[in-house]
Amino acid sequence: MSITTLLKTRYPLIQGGMANIATAEFAASVANAGALGLIGAGGMNASRLREEIRRAKELTQGSFGVNLMLMNPEVDEMADIVVEEGVRFVTTGAGNPGKYMAKWKEAGIVVMPVVPSVALAKRMERLGADALIVEGCEAGGHIGELTTMALVPQVAQAVSIPVIAAGGIASNRQVAASFCLGAVGVQVGTCLLASQECPIHENYKQAVLKAKDTDTIVTGRIGGTPVRILKNKMAKQYVAKEKEGASREELEVYTLGSLRKAVFEGNVDEGSLMAGQVSGMVHEIRPVAKIIAELFEGVDHVLEEAKDVYNNSK
Ligand code: TUI
Question: CA 142, CA 49: separation in Å to the nearest integer?
Answer without folding.
Answer: 21
